[in-house]
């Protein structure tokens, strides 16, 4: 019997697990995929927002501002890169100028610091590649960039270091209130828990209904993106937004934390919650939108395209708290933008609510505060690299040529708590296969390392989900 | 303080280009050579090219890739040339310091008198052709499929569609078929195949695999593993024609959509790249714009036959040796400019008054020509012309010019006249 | 018996001549048309009489630095036997070391061709 059973290991599930792991509780986090971060947390803009956009008084506004506040310390604890590079929301003409000022005012109401309005001329000095048609911009000094999937993976990992159980490839198919506890049926077996945290992303409405909660619904909204080669880094130094609309924050041009350039997203509602396909029209729209902000964007330097499906709540705000339909159910749903930013704050807020609901939580005596940093020989001095390689030779073996990732880093990613078991899991953790050749060189090597380390045949290695085997059979009889 | 090992010659890459350059440099009196090879074996991509057809120019035999590689590897061993396997070059600086890393030696810096860049090329992948759709398992480049089968020993799928009729794609069509994979078809965007004719006959026609020209894949289906692709016919502008879409069921899409010289290290070192090909500008000594940095093989331009890589690399090895010994080519150099359908020419500059009878020029054309002439002009003066019954983008063209012709020219422009 | 006329694409050089082969009543070659050089005659004749190909493939190696040795047939084998020859290699295992030129399977499927290694696999 678990005290708390969390469904979904995106950023919400991961940070909630991490926050709860401070306490003497028996916790599991169930993930439908083989590795964490396979839904919206995998495919979004990777922006830690300032907090000027959400409507004052909403949970979005409150948790965005608090999340940004927490992010510096959290990134340090988790050892993930985070750069407060700042952002501009650019205005084209008088109407936009007014909207920029409104955003500025709203930001002040939300308690956002480091906001200012800059003129078009001033912006061109700071960001010379921006469109000459820009008339003014809102500058947000606290906006930053981060890897969203690293956030989910790192928080899940540290939670597991602190005793949380990671149930990979577990799809919840039904739940029943047994009076004293909830029975959770998954495709891998039956579990029991006193409380359930529903952080199931696009599936959260479906999960809530399993316990009779139909108080909200989720609209799936697809966003398509392009990533440009690192050779394009420097085209912008900060995140460049256009004016937000009803459909979201619009198409941005942004540096990524790993040195690439991100364009997108488009924003279209879709019927299929799992529709992560890119389309010719969508990609063209993202390029057009990006060029409106930064005309010199060179889409020929494209290294990959992807799409994510955001969970848009029908209530208009994050759905966080105890379910009215079942007191053993806590929903964390509709976590669209600024969900990534808010995630540590969401966890703090939810655990506060759980305590208020009378769930007993006593602090553990031993709690690991920090996730150990990854060792990256390519960034080390000769002496440090040689000391490491002498001890662990795998750190001298480059596996991914584009990103210069070593076998040592891949082994570490596999061996960590809730470690990688798939090709994409390795890719998200250490960037093997994320460079300009997109895995042409390293894929076969990564499969070999995964199989060796997990003690299975290479034909058992998957790309991401259970049905995504990479290889069909051995060439010759074993 | 970083510790540097001094070397006369550092060769980056132990494939056919690097091996040939090292052997020739050694034969020309340079002893202090190291070849840096990232894989666990020398020979580069030849090791996975187990089909035959290599070596017709060099040996008059139809060798397989591993056999061709073995000949040069053995020769290098005989000559006592040091090959550092499992060793990766992290970067090269402008002052010819090569930073390497390996499990055995750790991080090692070499300070080289001369460097030969011989990193080869890599395959273009899905984004290079803006191929949208799902991102399931089962979308592989042809070279990756070749490695998975021939080196790692795994068959990656059951039913394949191949996009692009480059040579590796054609070779893999046959290999997959012989291993029991159902290869449904090869689709080619262009109106001609970029592969060698003999490969179309022996790899597709022999097994009844259809080749559809003017077609492309417009969508990939399957959330986890590929379940199929949508193909369509394209118009003259290579845009898919609405209404011609067709769904083809398969669990694997093999991409053979072109090769691109692997020049990230060169770029980092400050070597000038040819924006047309992604290759390097070199002179007739295979010297780049950087003093003492030479290059050869597919890192300069993508060759069709490995034999020509060897010939070019022998030249690079010899010239690097001369450079180390202090022999420099002081003569005036003139520009060699591609025009009229010629995409690029190697070399891009050539020296006058050299002690040789002829000089070679290699290039590729941008489309198919029949009964055309290769023309070489100096200003308005036609220096030479060569009749060709056929010229195709899939094959590298090679012409020889007399040194006399070079000596009397102020510039050479190489083009095609129909 | 008279055979249907056929067209062979020559692969001797990039010209890729389409050579039309016409047959006499007894099945022998009556006429070759469309070739630009002598190589075309040789190639087209072989293709219509007894088409043969060199097969290249892989054989499993036990105890070596690599799992597979690349191999080829020592001489061309009938085109129609290529797939069966590969099937026959499926369960073959050889012990390391393997050198270039080692005969790994003799007289494959009675074709008179041996399966010969084209690479080096050291023992580990």
Q: How would the blueprint of this fold be written?
A:
The complex is a heterotrimer of chains A (478), B (418) and C (124).
Chain A: E1 2-7, H1 11-20, E2 27-30, E3 47-48, H2 59-78, E4 82-83, E5 87-91, H3 94-110, E6 115-119, H4 120-126, E7 136-140, E8 144-146, H5 148-161, E9 165-167, E10 172-177, E11 182-186, E12 189-198, H6 204-210, E13 218-228, E14 239-241, E15 252-255, E16 261-264, E17 268-270, H7 280-293, E18 302-313, E19 319-322, E20 329-333, H8 339-356, H9 382-391, E21 398-400, E22 405-406, H10 407-415, H11 423-430, H12 443-454, E23 473-474
Parallel strand pairs in A: 1-2, 1-12, 2-9, 5-14, 12-20
Antiparallel strand pairs in A: 3-8, 4-8, 5-7, 6-7, 10-11, 11-12, 13-16, 13-17, 13-18, 15-16, 19-20, 21-22
Helix pairs in contact in A: 1-5, 1-8, 2-8, 10-11, 10-12
Chain B: E1 4-12, H1 16-27, E2 33-36, E3 52-54, E4 63-64, H2 65-78, E5 82-84, E6 88-92, E7 97-102, E8 106-117, E9 121-123, E10 139-141, H3 142-152, E11 154-155, E12 159-163, H4 167-178, E13 182-187, H5 197-204, E14 211-212, E15 215-221, E16 228-233, E17 246-249, E18 252-255, E19 259-261, H6 264-269, E20 293-295, H7 306-324, E21 333-338, E22 342-346, E23 349-351, E24 358-365, E25 369-378, E26 381-391, E27 397-402, H8 403-407, E28 412-417
Parallel strand pairs in B: 1-2, 1-8, 2-5, 8-20, 10-18, 12-13, 12-18, 13-14, 21-28
Antiparallel strand pairs in B: 3-4, 6-7, 7-8, 9-19, 15-16, 16-17, 21-23, 22-24, 24-27, 25-26, 25-28
Chain C: E1 6-9, E2 18-23, E3 29-33, H1 38-49, E4 52-53, E5 56-62, E6 68-73, E7 77-78, H2 82-89, E8 93-95, E9 103-105, E10 115-117
Parallel strand pairs in C: 5-8
Antiparallel strand pairs in C: 1-2, 2-3, 4-7, 5-6, 6-10, 9-10
Output the structural class of chain B.
alpha/beta
Which two protein chains have the largest interface (Cβ within 8 Å of the partner's Cβ), and how many residues from each? A-B, 61 and 52 residues
Determine the strand fraction of chain C and express it as a percent band.
25-35%
| CATH class division of the largest domain in chain C | Alpha Beta
List keywords for this structure.
A: 478 residues; alpha+beta; D-Amino Acid Oxidase, Chain A, domain 2; 12 helices; 31% helix; 23% strand; globular; B: 418 residues; FAD/NAD(P)-binding domain; 3 domains; seven-stranded mixed sheet; five-stranded parallel sheet
């Amino acid at each position: 019997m678990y005290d708390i059973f969390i469904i979904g290991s995106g950023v919400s599930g991961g940070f909630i697990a991490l926050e709860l792991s401070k306490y003497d509780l028996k916790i599991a986090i169930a993930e439908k995929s083989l590795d964490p971060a396979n839904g919206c947390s995998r495919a979004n803009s990777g922006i830690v927002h300032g907090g000027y956009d959400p409507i004052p008084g909403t949970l979005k506004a409150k948790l965005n501002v608090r999340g940004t506040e927490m992010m510096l310390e959290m990134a340090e604890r988790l050892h993930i890169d985070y750069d407060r590079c700042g952002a501009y929301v650019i205005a084209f003409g008088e109407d936009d100028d007014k909207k920029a000022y409104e955003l500025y005012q709203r930001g002040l109401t939300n308690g956002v610091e480091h906001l200012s309005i800059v003129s078009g001329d001033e912006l061109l000095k700071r960001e010379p590649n921006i469109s000459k048609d820009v008339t003014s911009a809102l500058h947000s000094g606290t906006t930053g960039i981060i890897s969203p999937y690293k956030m989910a993976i790192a928080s899940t990992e540290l939670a597991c270091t602190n005793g949380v159980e990671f149930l990979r490839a577990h799809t919840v198919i039904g739940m029943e209130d047994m009076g004293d506890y909830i029975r959770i049926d998954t495709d891998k077996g039956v579990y029991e828990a006193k409380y359930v945290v529903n952080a199931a992303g696009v599936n959260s409405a479906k999960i809530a209904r399993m316990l009779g909660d139909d108080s909200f619904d989720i609209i799936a909204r697809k966003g398509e993106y392009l990533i440009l080669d690192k050779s394009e880094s420097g085209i912008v130094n900060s995140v460049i937004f256009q004016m937000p609309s009803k459909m979201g924050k619009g198409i941005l041009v942004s540096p990524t934390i790993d040195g690439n350039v991100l364009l997108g997203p488009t924003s279209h509602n879709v019927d299929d919650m799992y529709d992560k396909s890119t389309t010719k029209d969508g990609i063209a729209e993202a390029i057009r939108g990006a060029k409106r902000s930064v005309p010199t964007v060179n889409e020929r330097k494209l290294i990959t395209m992807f799409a994510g499906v955001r969970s848009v709540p029908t209530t208009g705000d994050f759905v966080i708290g105890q379910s009215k339909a079942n007191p053993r159910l806590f929903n964390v749903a509709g976590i669209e933008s600024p969900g990534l930013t808010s995630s540590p704050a969401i966890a703090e807020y939810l655990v506060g609510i759980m305590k208020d609901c009378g769930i007993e939580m006593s602090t553990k005596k031993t709690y690991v505060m920090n996730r150990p940093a990854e060792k990256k020989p390519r960034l080390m001095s000769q002496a440090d690299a040689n000391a490491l390689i002498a001890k662990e030779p795998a750190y001298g073996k480059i596996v991914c040529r584009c990103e210069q990732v070593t076998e040592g880093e891949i082994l570490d990613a596999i061996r960590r708590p809730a470690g990688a078991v798939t090709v994409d899991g390795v890719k998200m953790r250490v960037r093997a296969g994320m460079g300009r050749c997109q895995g042409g060189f390293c894929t076969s090597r990564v499969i070999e390392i995964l199989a060796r380390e997990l003690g299975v045949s290479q034909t058992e290695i998957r790309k991401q989900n259970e049905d995504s085997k990479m290889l069909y059979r051995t060439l010759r009889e074993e | 303080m970083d510790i540097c090992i001094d070397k006369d010659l550092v060769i980056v890459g132990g494939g056919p280009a690097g091996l040939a350059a090292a052997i020739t440099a050694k034969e020309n009196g340079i002893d202090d050579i190291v070849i840096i090879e990232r894989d666990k074996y020398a020979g580069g991509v030849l090791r996975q090219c187990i089909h035959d057809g290599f070596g017709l120019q060099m040996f008059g035999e139809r060798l397989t890739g591993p056999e061709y590689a073995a000949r040069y590897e053995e020769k290098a061993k005989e000559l006592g040339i040091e090959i550092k396997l499992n060793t990766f070059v992290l970067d090269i600086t402008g002052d010819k310091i090569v930073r390497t890393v390996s499990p055995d030696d750790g991080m090692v810096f070499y300070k080289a008198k001369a460097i030969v860049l011989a990193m080869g090329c890599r395959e273009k992948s899905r984004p290079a052709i803006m191929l949208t759709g799902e991102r399931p398992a089962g979308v592989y480049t042809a070279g990756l499929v070749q490695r998975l089968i021939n080196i790692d020993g795994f068959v990656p799928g059951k039913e394949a569609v191949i996009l692009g009729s480059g040579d590796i794609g054609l070779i893999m069509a046959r290999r997959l078929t012989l291993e029991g994979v159902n290869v449904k078809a090869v689709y080619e965007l262009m109106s001609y195949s970029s592969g060698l004719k003999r490969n179309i006959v022996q790899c597709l026609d022999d097994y009844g695999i259809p080749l559809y020209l003017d077609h492309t894949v417009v969508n990939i289906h399957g959330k986890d593993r590929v379940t199929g692709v949508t193909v369509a016919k394209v118009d003259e502008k290579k845009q898919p024609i609405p209404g011609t879409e067709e769904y083809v069921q398969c669990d694997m899409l093999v991409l053979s959509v072109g090769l691109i010289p692997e020049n990230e290290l060169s770029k980092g070192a400050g070597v000038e790249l040819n924006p047309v090909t992604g290759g390097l500008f070199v002179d007739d000594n295979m010297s780049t714009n950087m003093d003492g940095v030479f290059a050869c093989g597919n890192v300069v331009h993508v060759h069709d036959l490995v034999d020509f890589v060897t010939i070019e690399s022998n030249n690079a090895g010899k010239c690097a040796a001369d450079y180390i010994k202090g022999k420099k080519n002081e003569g005036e150099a003139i520009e060699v400019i591609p025009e009229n359908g010629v995409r690029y020419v190697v070399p891009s500059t050539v020296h006058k008054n050299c002690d040789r009878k002829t000089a070679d020029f290699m290039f590729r054309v941008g489309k198919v020509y029949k009964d055309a002439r290769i023309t070489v002009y100096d200003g308005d003066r036609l220096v030479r012309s060569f009749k060709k019954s056929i010229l195709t983008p899939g094959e590298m063209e090679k012409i020889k010019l007399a040194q006399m012709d070079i000596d009397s020219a102020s510039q050479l422009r190489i083009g095609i006249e129909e | 018996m008279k055979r249907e006329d056929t067209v062979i694409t020559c692969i001797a050089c990039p010209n890729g001549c389409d050579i039309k082969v016409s047959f006499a009543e007894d099945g022998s070659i009556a006429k070759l048309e469309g070739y630009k050089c002598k190589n075309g005659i040789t190639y087209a004749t072989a293709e219509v009489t007894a088409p043969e190909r060199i097969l290249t493939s892989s054989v499993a190696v036990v105890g070596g630095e690599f799992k597979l040795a690349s191999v080829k047939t020592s001489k061309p084998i009938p085109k129609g036997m290529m797939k069966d020859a590969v099937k026959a290699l499926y369960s073959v295992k050889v012990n390391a070391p393997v050198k270039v030129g080692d005969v790994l399977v003799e007289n494959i499927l009675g074709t008179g061709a041996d399966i010969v290694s084209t690479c080096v696999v050291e023992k580990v």
